[in-house]
Amino acid sequence: MPAENQSSETDTQATSPATAPYGGSGGAAAGGATGEAGATPHSPSRIRTVHLRRFKDDGRRFAMLTAYDAQIASIFDEAGVEVLLVGDSAANVMMGRTTTLPITVDEMLVFSRSVVNGVRRALVVADVPFGSYEASPQQAVATGVRFLKEAGVHAVKVEGDAAMAPHVRAMVAAGIPVMAHVGFTPQSEHALGGYRVQGRGDAAARVLEDARAMQDAGAFCVLMEMVPSEVAAEVDAALEVPTIGIGAGGSTTGQVLVWQDMLGMTQGRVPRFVKRYADLRGVISEAATAFADDVRSGTFPAEEHGF
């Protein structure tokens, strides 16, 4: 495992205010675990891959949300969310595309740098996009290096089955922490016949085989998407590394959602595995309507808004 991920839970080395971990000198982040929402007395000042493994060993769970900009990342970080995923879902929720396939490495690097700039404590993981790692282990390493060097993320996420194990092994050997993604893999939606649950019936053994192959290749965590709950539970029990679920039941060590789904920003059909914690789209729409009405009526700006 890379030395970057071997730090202890008391890792509080001095850093700049923009990157200082909780408990350091970083302004609003000062106060450490006892002063932060969502933190516990035993929370590390900076989440590392090794801490996720400890969470599983200790029977603790952790949360992961997507993030694509510094402001949202800062809010989730201060709320105590342990892992932030710069997902290639940015293609859908940030760029208006219908699939994740068109997003490029350069576009993902912009989103990833933005998230890193807003984070002090959370582990930041970035998706490597379609077409940037599949050709060879060498291509996978080159792409992973760009994310760590140019964006400053702490790890990358790779979609795929056991056939991708050599790519993951090469990345880990090069010092790139890798989270694996099995089950339904959105980058393969056309090959899989659309958004369909994976691992039903006889296909359950394949999910376990893929997860084990990724663990054996050195992945520090395995994310399972749209997998039957009982299959996900079997995989989690069989693996030493932690698992993360999205539409995979409650037996995984962590859970992840796309933040726009979780906060009610998206329209249309909501996936069955999504729980909405707010109607942010409604709040924003109401505020924008009130602003436009005030401008048209001359109510805004009032005298107190001028110089």
Account of the 3D structure:
With 307 residues, the chain is α/β, with parallel strands linked by helices. Helix content is 35%, strand content 12%. An eight-stranded parallel beta barrel has the order 1-2-3-4-5-6-7-8, surrounded by seven helices. Helix 2 (70-78) packs across helix 4 (105-117), helix 4 packs parallel to helix 5 (137-151) and helix 8 packs parallel to helix 9 (229-238). It is globular and about 65 Å long. The protein starts with 48 loop residues before the first helix and ends in a 10-residue tail after the last helix.
Proportion of strand residues:
5-15%
- The helix fraction, in percent, is 25-40%
Our count of helices gives 11
Low-pLDDT stretches: 1-37
Shape: globular
Care to count the β-strands? 8
Across the major sheet, the strand order is 1-2-3-4-5-6-7-8
Order of helices and strands: HEHEHHEHEHEHHEHEEHH
Structural class: alpha/beta
Distance between the amino and carboxyl termini:
57 Å
Overall mean pLDDT: 88
Specify the biggest β-sheet: 8 strands, parallel, barrel
Radius of gyration using CA atoms only? 20 Å
Binding site for 3-methyl-2-oxobutanoate: 88-89, 127, 157
Binding site for Mg(2+): 88, 127, 159
Cofactor: Mg(2+)
Protein name: 3-methyl-2-oxobutanoate hydroxymethyltransferase
Produce a short descriptive summary:
The chain has 307 residues and is of the alpha/beta class. 35% of the residues lie in helices and 12% in strands. The chain has an eight-stranded parallel barrel with strand order 1-2-3-4-5-6-7-8, surrounded by seven helices.
